[in-house]
């Protein structure tokens, strides 16, 4: 399988987060995660991941899973770092002087310079607008989706579980409308819902974009 499932996945994800957010291992001043030399990741994987985790898959799949996990956590860390110190009333130089304790000054200066570039600001603005247009949000908690899917009999139940709040209410009206249709489709289903198919509840109701 391509991604680990079970209790060990939470441990792995947490450990990946610790490594990915350590700027002594993965510097923050590279513009994008793919810009980091792959030798940095390979050295980290071989030194810290491989001796501690046993994957029930081929090594290339395990490396790809860890690589993608670290990519997300590295990006999230950088975003959080900048949001924490950013002040629209401060100049670029003033923000450069606000070096977080755990970040080397040279990395921070390069990172802030990147964030203040016109192209970067345009990308950030566009991404923010895209997030605003996402009508149907979901509640995923900290449990990995691969583990959630493994615990639920089909995509329909998975969709319902991730689009409701803890009190049973829906995350928004758009999600409520879709979930009610999925519940109806599940009650009338004549196929094996544990198998992903265009004819399962999710494939029929929201449409191909959710399949």
Automatic annotation (TrEMBL):
Pfam families recorded: Transposase_24
InterPro entries (alphabetical): Probable_transposase_24
Region (Disordered): 189-211
PANTHER family, A to Z: OS10G0409366 PROTEIN-RELATED, TRANSPOSASE TNP1_EN_SPM-LIKE DOMAIN-CONTAINING PROTEIN
Name used for this protein in its record: Uncharacterized protein LOC104212404 isoform X3
Organism: Nicotiana sylvestris
